[in-house]
Each structure stands twice: as structure tokens, then as C-alpha cells.
């Protein structure tokens, strides 16, 4: 497609130079790369997270949907030979109509642990039509009635996670992305908030998040399959049931039991879900043949539970705690989001006002005031600026994710949780490190370097724009030049630059690049990351100050010869100009500082 | 009978200064299909390196044509003002070229031009 399709706006078409400025603005590159980051979140992290969540939620469902063939079948008869409660497995012969030979002598592995009761029940109700999944080789898993509903909740969870993926991706606006864009908007060096401490905070927030998940999961198991008291009184009815089988761990602890009841002339048997709290509690163990009360769901007569109403009341309480937690985390995340947005709106903070240009004076002044407000302590401001908002926002939404997951997925064992936790942490650690890897290091180091220099250096006039073929006056002000500097050399340099792999915030021709190159080893790192090619078309000394002169003050002229290219900044190609200052210390020349300058075409003024 | 779109710069040479007016004549050949609803003339610049090409549109306008008038064998004169920059550049790593393009459906014509500083 030609560039015909990219029509300029009326504003763009109405003026010449501003159009160029606008087009060349590196935000074009920055935005496109910002979308790459979001794409990374959406396409890599979110699906991984969903996969992770689904794996926790219903391990077998996910795999069944991928690896198993789904088929309607009818169980004709089942003979149970062994029931292993501890391993949640049953050995049985199953006769399935139409597929008898394949499924004879199958071992049913109860992978959906929560549904163990139903599987067991279904074994004793062989005439019920079930949906079963038949693996092509030899195994079979019987999915109990109601499994489809469970799947719905899993898909709902997946949708929630996708939505959260979007939110987390966008939340970058309150974090590094915003800072980068702020830097570009101002076209000035700004403080970058990603210190090492910040990263630890970031990591801690994830750890806290998983801590919340853990607690939630510890609470959640007791909710599974247990209705609240109000639901119990509305949708369930109490009946007399008979204990048919009882197994115990010791004299006082029950490990399993089979209870039967009659309904509409038919006998139903069920295996009460003796989850951990009840199993480990010392209760009065019922005897075989004893009549006990059980609750049967009115619209699902094959679903029954046992237990006193106090258990339901406990469930009420736990459910209320979790729901309150959900509401609180939603509120917390919203407040934190607002906080992050407010911090973002304040804009970036420049390190110094050494560079200024006419039409940005007000903003520069404003930023300087803010700088002074924080007593010139950039790190202090840095910590306050975005970190907490960002931190809590992430924390909040991740807490919501955790709690929702806990609410929907029910119980799972500690080893499973720890394994998932490890995988999750690994994924997040990789993602976090990928996002901010070395680019931050480079820039941070670069800024540190600049902070020392710029606190003392001034370049005037307050402009860094030069016009080709026209003389410009420069004055050098250095209040306290180091005593060991013998000579200062001012060298003008012009380079073509080609970036093959631009990253967010890095556009050729912008100060960010020069700041980054100030870092020790920064150039190499940056070149490697961005795949930068450079060609220096001019490097010429324009002025030299000796110790015998005044190293702190000088005035000199600069004229850029006609025929040389002017500054140009596009997302991938640029022409950059800079005045590098070299110091000769003990006979050795070392880079001292750099001033980016912009060289305009003749006759162009900003 | 010409079956295409052609651009002819109405100046001597292809070199221009910032702020110059660019006059060009667009010839629409008989082969321009009647289904073409819009004919657009655009001025823009291309930055091209060894393995990448970025295109930027500076200005664009629809030619004053309607389908009722018929498109075949028609000459249209277009005037556009050249901007202050960026100037044409031919470097080692990349080059910057100015182009004027006319697009009529699938037919396209292109004419290069050079934007140089007045002092050069």
C-alpha cells in the first residue's frame, strides 16, 4: 500500500514545518512499540495465565477438551472392585453400550476431585445417562452430570482473566510506559522511577498477590459443594438417610462413608464430601444402618449432603469474608488506579533546567519548581511518583484475580498449589524482566551520570537549535570546574543513525539516546538491544579551553557548514547532532559531557 | 491511446527549494476504469535504508473530478506548496527522497523530486 492511504489531518496539511516536527516526533515509534508491549501481555502473558488458571481449576477439563474425544455413551453396568479414597481413584469394570470391548477393565482416575461424590454416585446408578470422554487408547473418564456447568464457570473465569489481561496491559500507562511517553512529550531528560528498590517492590507485590491466592484457596475448599444456610433452606429439603458404609482412619476420625436415601420409589446412594475440616474433626462416627439427617437438593434429587446446619453457617461466614475481600480489593485497586493516574498527570520531572527552548519555558519552569519542591532529591520523588500507585494497582487487580479464581475453582492440594505458584512466579518473573530488561539499567545509569554533570553545567543561550550556514553564539558556564581538568575540548559531531529494532521510548535523535550512551557500557548494550548502526559524517573540534584560560566561562561561535544534513528523527532513521565535551585530565582525554543540539535547515526557526 | 496515469512536473528539472510551489500535470489515460471514484494526488517523503522503508505523507488532495465528467484522456493541473523540510538527503545508511504520487484505483504514477536548501 502506498502512503496515499495515510492522509494527513487538516492541521497537518495546513502548515509545513510543524507537520515535519509532528511526523518526525519519536512518539510514533514509541507508541507502536508500546503496542508491542501490550501485545506481549495479551498474547503471551494472558494466555499463559489463563492456562495456569484452568490447570488449577479443572486439570482434566482442559486436557480433555484438547486430547480427548467427546462422545455420548450410556453406562450399562459397573462393578466396583476397589475404591481408593486417598488417591481419589476407583477400579471398576465398566460396560458402556457400543464400546464394550474398549472399556472393559478400565481404571477410572478421578481427576476432577470435587466431583468424586458424583462419580461414585453414578457408579451406583448405572442406568443414568452420562456424558463420557473416551480416550482413543484405553482410558476412560466419566464426567459426572453437571460437569458442563462447571465448564461454564471455567470459561467465565477465562473471560475474566482475559479482561484482566487487558487491564494489566493498559495499566502500564501508570508505570514505565507513561514515564517514557512523558519523557518524549517533554523532550527533556526526566527521572526514571525504576530503581532497583522499585523492582523489589514490584516483585513483592506479586508475592503478596500469590499469598492472597494461597489464603483464598485455603478458605475456598470448605465452600465447595456446601450451600449457604439461606440457599439450604430455600432449595434443599431435609430427609432421613441411612448409613450404608463407613470407613475410619482411627477410632475417632472418619475417612469416608456411603449414605442412601429413597426418593420416588428409587434408592439413591451418595458419598458425602468429607472435606478436610470434617474429616479431621473428631465426630461421633455413625454406625452402618444408622439413620441420619441429610439434605437433598429439590431440583437435583441425586445431589445430597450431610451435616449439621452449623456447617452451613460457617460456610456463610467464609463466603461473606471472601466476598468482602473481593469488594475491598476492587475498591482498593480503583483507588490505586486513580492515584496512579493522578501521579501520571503530574508529568515527568526533569533532572535540571540546563536545556531550555523558548516555547517550552513555562513547562520547564513548572518542572523546575517541582524539582525544587522535592529538595533536589530525585530518588525521593521517584519513589513517591509512580511506584505506589502502580504497585497497588497491580496488587489490587491481581488480588481480584486470585480471589475470583479461589471462588470458582474450589479446593486443591498444597503440592498442586505450590507447583502452580512456582510456575506462575516464573512466568511473571520472566515477563517482568523481559519488559524492563537492561533498557532501564542503561537509562538509570545514564541519568545518574547526567545528574552529576548537569548540576554544574550550563550551556547558553537557552537554545539548542542551530541553523545550517548561520553563526550561533555559544557561551560555556561552568561554575566549579574540577581542579584536575587541564583542557576542555568541544567537538561537534554529526551522525546518521539507523535503528533496526526500536524499543519503547528510544527514538533516534532524542536525548534519551545520548543519556543512555553516557552509561558505562551503555553504548554497547544499547546497540545490541536496538541493533543500531551509526555513521559519523562529521567530527570536528570547534573550541578548546586550557587551564590558562577560564575553564568556567567562555564564549565562542559555531557555524555549521552548508551542505551538511540537518537533524532528522523518524522511528527508524535519524540524523543526530551533538557537542561532545572532552576533558584532558593528567594527560588523558576522557569524555566529560554531551549536549544534544538540533540543526535546522536554513531559514527554519521554531 | 495511453492506458495509465502519468505525472509531468511543469518545471525545468526536479530540484526545488523549501516553500516553492510545485506544479504538475496529471494525465489520465483512456485505460482508467470508470469505476474509479477518487483520484488522489499526494506529496510525501520516503526514508529508505538497506532493509527498511518508511513513508510519510505531507499533503494530499483529491483531484477535481467527478465520474459524470468521465476520466478518460483528461489532463488535470495540480499545485502544491513544498514544505520547509525535511530536505532530500542521500547518506551512507539511508536516504530521504521526496515523491509526488497519483493514485487512481489500482493505477499509480510516481514522480521523484529533490528538495534542497536555498543556500546549497
Give an overview in words.
The complex is a heterodimer of chains A (606) and B (120). Chain A has 606 residues and is α+β, with helices and mostly antiparallel strands. Chain A contains 18 helices and 19 strands. In chain A, 45% of the residues lie in helices and 25% in strands. In chain A, a hairpin with a 4-residue loop joins strand 1 (69-84) and strand 2 (89-96). The radius of gyration of chain A is 35 Å and the shape is rod-shaped. Chain B has 120 residues and is mostly beta strands. In chain B, strands 2, 4, 5, 7, 8 and 9 form a 6-stranded mixed sheet that branches. The interface between A and B is large, with 39 and 38 residues.
Which stretches of chain A are low in confidence, meaning pLDDT under 50 for 5 or more residues running?
1-38, 54-83, 85-93, 95-154, 168-204, 216-224, 275-282, 343-393, 406-413, 431-467, 502-522
> Whole-number radius of gyration of chain A?
35 Å
- Summarize the largest interface: chains and residue counts: A-B, 39 and 38 residues
Residue stretches of chain B low in confidence (pLDDT < 50, at least 5 long) are: none
Average pLDDT of chain B works out at: 78
Shape of chain A: rod-shaped
Helix content of chain A: 40-55%
Percent of residues in helices of chain B: under 10%
Give a quick precis of the structure.
With 606 residues, chain A is an alpha+beta fold. Chain A has helices spanning 10-14, 17-24, 27-57, 59-67, 100-103, 116-123, 147-170, 176-186, 196-219, 229-235, 276-280, 309-345, 361-373, 378-409, 414-436, 439-454, 511-518, 522-530, and strands at residues 69-84, 89-96, 106-109, 129-134, 140-143, 236-248, 254-263, 266-270, 291-297, 304-306, 458-460, 465-467, 471-477, 485-499, 532-546, 553-559, 568-569, 573-585, 588-600.
How are the secondary structure elements laid out?
The complex is a heterodimer of chains A (606) and B (120).
Chain A: H1 10-14, H2 17-24, H3 27-57, H4 59-67, E1 69-84, E2 89-96, H5 100-103, E3 106-109, H6 116-123, E4 129-134, E5 140-143, H7 147-170, H8 176-186, H9 196-219, H10 229-235, E6 236-248, E7 254-263, E8 266-270, H11 276-280, E9 291-297, E10 304-306, H12 309-345, H13 361-373, H14 378-409, H15 414-436, H16 439-454, E11 458-460, E12 465-467, E13 471-477, E14 485-499, H17 511-518, H18 522-530, E15 532-546, E16 553-559, E17 568-569, E18 573-585, E19 588-600
Parallel strand pairs in A: 12-19
Antiparallel strand pairs in A: 1-2, 1-4, 2-3, 4-5, 6-7, 6-9, 7-8, 9-10, 11-13, 13-16, 14-15, 14-18, 17-18, 18-19
Helix pairs in contact in A: 3-4, 3-7, 3-8, 3-15, 7-14, 9-14, 9-15, 12-14, 16-17, 16-18
Chain B: E1 5-9, E2 15-16, E3 21-28, E4 39-48, E5 53-62, E6 74-81, E7 89-90, E8 95-104, E9 107-115
Parallel strand pairs in B: 2-9
Antiparallel strand pairs in B: 1-3, 3-6, 4-5, 4-8, 7-8, 8-9
